[in-house]
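not sure who needs this but someone in the group chat was asking about Cytochrome c oxidase assembly factor 4 homolog, mitochondrial from Trichechus manatus latirostris so here u go. i didnt clean anything up, its just raw.
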Amino acid sequence: MSTSVPQGHTWARQVKEEDEEEDPLDQLISRSGCAASHYAVQECMAQHQDWRQCQPQVQAFRNCMSEQQARRREELQKKKEQASAHR
């Protein structure tokens, strides 16, 4: 009976640690603003298990990420220009 208590305690602690540590890829996707598109791809893949049947969702996610990368590039360029203007 005493062996089940430490196992239960260890299990609960592991779950808590996993909750605190979000996957870096999930963090990146969440920050990009493309999480809904990403989840749509995941749901489609879970349902169909064939990426060819999920091309509309894949393309929407790809477009979203491309737009986000372009915005990020513009932001970095503006910051770079502002930094060099202050010198």
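also The mean pLDDT is 83. if thats useful
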